[in-house]
Amino acid sequence: MFLSLCCPAGFPLKSIHSSSVLEQISSFRGLVASLCASPMQWKEYLRFPSSTVVGTVPCRSHSHLSLLQRLLLWNTIVPNCLEGLASTLEECLLCLPDPAGLTDTPHTGNPQALARYLVNHEGPIIISLPNPKGDKTATIQPLSLISQLSRWVGGENKVHLTVIYSGTMPEEEAVLSLLDTAVNEGHWIIFYCCHLVERWDDKLVERMSQLMSSSEEGKCVTHPCFRLWFVTHETEKCSIPAVVRMRAFLLACDSPWDLNEELSCSTRHLLSFCQAQSSSDVSAENMELFIRCIIFHSVLLQRQRCKYLGFGKACHWNQEDLFVLVDASMSIASLCYDKTKVLQHTAITLVHGGHVVDSADLNAVECVARCCFGAESFAGNGPHILWDIVNTHGDLDLSGVLQTLDQYFGNSTNSDSDMLGFSSDVASEVTKINSYNLHSLLQASQTPPGLLGSCIVRNQRAKLPDYRLTRDRLQALRNYLTQRREVNVEGVSRSPIRDFLQTEWNALSDSVSALASQLQLSSFSLLHLIDLPCLEKKAVLLSSYLWQEGTTDPPGAYRLSAFKKPRGFLAALIREGALVNHKYISDMVLHFQERRQDGNEELNDDEIITKVPLHTEFSPVLCSLRTVRLVTWTGITMKPSRNLATTLSCCILTTAGLYLVDFSCVSRIRRSTWLRLRLLSLPQYHISDVMRASLSTDPLHKVAPLLAEPHLAALSRRLKTVLDTVSRCQEQQKEDGREKVIYDDLDSLRNSTFFAGL
Questions:
Q1: Which ranges carry the FAM20 C-terminal domain (predicted)?
Q2: Which among 188, 439, 604, 755 has most CB atoms closer than 10 A?
Q3: What are the beta bridge partners of residue 378?
Q4: 127 DSSP β-pair partners
Q5: How big is the CA angle at 689 (ends 683 and 690), to the nearest 5 degrees?
Q6: Are 212 and 243 a contacting pair, CB within 8 Å?
Q7: Region 128-135: what's the mean pLDDT?
Q8: What are phi and psi of 203, to 5 degrees?
Q9: At what angle do helices 398-411 and 384-392 cross, to 10 degrees?
Q10: What's the CA gap between 298 and 262, in Å, rounded?
Q11: 3-state secondary structure of 231
Q12: What 3-state class would DSSP assign to 439?
């Protein structure tokens, strides 16, 4: 009742109620009272369109509101003008000289529009790169961006670029000389990797301050084309001198926000790339391949932004990969009949697929490539929609493609998830990811430079352990490791696993001794001792494995995080199994079981994982948060397969590994096995060649081959021994009238499901 009585004229009652809720925020205290006291001033300010949208609030009581707070105020009182408000905010914030004539938004993907905007800024420019430890990646290199901007700004007069790598800063006099030359002749100086600078030279900082002060005072002491550029990480902006940051324009070298912006960015970069090529290379025949390359590259980058929905591991693709693929289409594909097929194979195996390590991610790349370079689609949606849109408009020109795509995205009802090949229910997940990214950007924009880094430092210092306590614990751990190392050196049986565990114990003892000897009363050395409990836990686990002291965690299992070289432990298990079972190492397969770290979910004994390569980059079982329990050692067994080459390979492995050791005890052999062995003795199906070809499909074959050449040669010798032995048995059977050596099982096999499928 009070609000209705005191409602100022011209303001809806609903807006006043919303404003009373907004008053709960400290910055908006007294908002309703101010609306009642000065209704005319507020009505003039909240009238749209108005040039005071981004200006300060006219009422002194709320003139302190920031830009985002004023935007929230407009959203509360006048919620129906947000679209127009957004465009007005953009024009005022960017300070564009002619908004009506400038149709393109200036961003890193549009160097031409960005150059027209930067030409009005006379101060230094800071390019902020994404944090390399984070999930975001820059799809364009900063030096490439600066080079493109120089071509648009300079026009016919080429701008000279001088790059100074800040990681190895030249001598003071040399840098000052380069700076003076650039000031007089209009060069661009680029300080690259500024986050690596420990301390800027005082004379250099003073010289920069003089240049900026003279520019602000109107003294023309610099060339009109002179520019200073600084490239650093987004979390290390404070590495740049404060006198530069105060007058600099910050440019974020971030990835495009949506598919439309990604396509626009790729098309513009390719347009500038084609302008430097000859007219014969940029023919109408090649233009179709160029557009397909743009769609493929843009879709891959946007699918990676939703990595939990498309790619499990981030791939460092950028515009250089697009240029390489286009160059391949001009040089390689032009020599072939099916150019699209060749380009698809090049993209999967050499260019974009060359960045991919995970097999599942490579399958996703292949699926996108088939859709972009062929006629395949993702159940009715996918990147082929974009090609159909471009192709139906006739002219395959890059400038026309830009206009066509802009018109389509402005009027289309299809979402990005449809064109990226995701199902319709994924659109909500994409929206959540974009909302989270937008929230992070808004939070970072309202955080003063250096505040986030100082908070991290304060948190690290708060977690540092006490120096005396750390010293005592480290000394006690060193004494324990040294004593057990000396006491248990002799009188213990040797085995591959025990030798490995003893080596790990010695390595841990040496590491702890080195830390104890280097320990000093400084935060730098203490930072490395935050993991002291981890060292103590490793000592307890190794002690339980070596001398059965206490119980292992979990019981009867080996925790890979206890070892410095987990791959060596798995190799020791295989050697131990070969020693115990009197078999060759190549005949052994390690069966092991994965268990969750929290222990809430137990796996059954039959839920085992076999034949996993022993490589930390590709095998999830080597993760420090996993545990491994040895189940059994077995020889390699043959499983039915519909692939003849796989069947032959498994069969000869079984014969060579299990049965050939005691072949003299075997009295009969199946005819099917005999025929396979004779087939593998023929020159065109030689066992060594078949096995070599089969092993070559292993992605880790070049890194760590499963069988070396001596093993392959041994297979041939063993096969010859088998054939000779069976032949001698057949001759003896004929002479002595014994039972037939070869048992005919072909009739039963012909009726089996296995041979019916071959």
A1: 667-736
A2: 188
A3: 381
A4: 231, 251
A5: 100
A6: yes
A7: 74
A8: -65, -35
A9: 110
A10: 6
A11: strand
A12: helix
pLDDT of 608 above 70: no
Q: What tokens were used for 364?
A: 């996703």
- How far is it, in rounded angstroms, from Cα 569 to Cα 560? 8
Question: Rounded to whole angstroms, how far apart are CA atoms 588 and 570?
Answer: 12
HEC assignment per residue over 157-220: CCCCEEEEEHHHCCCHHHHHHHHHHHHHHCCEEEEECHHHCCCCCHHHHHHHHHHHHHHHCCCC
Looking up tokens 């609903």, which residue turns up? 14
The pLDDT tens digits of the residues spanning 243-300 come to 888 888 888 776 676 777 788 888 877 777 777 666 555 666 677 788 888 888 888 8
Which tens digits make up the pLDDT trace of 164-200? 887 777 788 888 889 989 888 889 999 988 888 888 8
Nearest residue to 137 (alpha-carbon basis) of 6, 318, 260, 286: 318
* The two three-digit tokens of residue 347, written as one number: 């993209």
Q: Alpha-carbon distance 712 to 688, whole Å?
A: 5
The CA-CA-CA angle for residues 264, 349, 641, to 5°, reads: 130
In the chain, what are the domains?
2-94 (no CATH), 132-252 (3.40.50.300), 280-422 (1.10.8), 425-460 (no CATH), 464-549 (no CATH), 551-635 (no CATH), 644-756 (no CATH)
**282 and 326 Cβ atoms separated by less than 8 Å:** no
Q: What is the C-alpha separation between 409 and 260, in angstroms, rounded?
A: 7
C-alpha closest to that of 318 among 257, 254, 412: 254
Q: Are 504 and 542 in contact (CB under 8 A)?
A: yes
**Which of 372-376, 494-498, 653-657 shows the lowest per-residue confidence on average (mean pLDDT)?**
653-657
∠ CA 197-319-191, nearest 5°, is: 20
**265, containing H or E segment:** helix 259-275
Q: How many whole angstroms from its chain centre is CA 497?
A: 36
Q: Are strands 188-192 and 125-129 parallel, antiparallel or unpaired?
A: unpaired
Torsion of CA 384, 388, 394, 399, to 10 degrees: -50
- The closest of 436, 409, 405, 433 to 310, measured between CA atoms, is 433
pLDDT value for 742: 81
Cβ neighbors of 413 (< 8 A, separation 6 or more) are: none
**Residue 256 has what DSSP assignment?**
-
**Residue reference for tokens 């059954």:** 604
Nearest CA to 240 among 255, 252, 251, 230? Answer: 230
- Alpha-carbon distance of 183 to 395, in angstroms, equals 46
Q: Torsion angle of alpha carbons 497, 498, 499, 502, nearest 10°?
A: 120
Cα dist from 484 to 172, 489, 504, 506, 533, whole Å: 56, 8, 13, 10, 19
Farthest-apart Cα atoms in the chain, separation: 124
Please give the Cα distance from 379 to 688 (Å, whole number): 44
* Measured distance between the N- and C-terminal CA atoms of the chain, rounded to whole angstroms: 86
Q: Answer yes or no: are the C-beta atoms of 281 and 156 closer than 8 Å.
A: no
d(CA 207, CA 188): 16
Tokens representing residue 189 in the block: 């100086």
Tokens standing for residue 661 = 């050791």
Crossing angle of helices 111-118/259-275, nearest 10°? 90
